[in-house]
Amino acid sequence: MATSASGEFELALKRLDEIVQRLEGENVALDESVALFKEGKTLAAKCEKLLKDAQTSIEAIAAGNGAGGTDRPA
Is there a contact between 42 and 52 (Cβ–Cβ < 8 Å)? Predict the structure, then answer.
């Protein structure tokens, strides 16, 4: 599952970079700019969710709530 989330994140980030390059590059029609901006906002929200999910998993593991047998006395 982590591989899937990682792959999703990488693809979304790559597409965001393409959108930024397009918007910063040559002249783009207003309607295309709006469509690209909307797509970028959606992708940014997806990336943010994936990062929050990863952070939650890391915090659970660090707290000893994750799998892996890390519950050892100090």
Answer: no
What's the gap between Cα 64 and its chain centre? 25
Strands (E), 1-74: none
Full set of structural domains in the chain with CATH: 2-62 (1.10.287)
Is the pLDDT reported for residue 74 higher than 80? no
pTM: 0.74
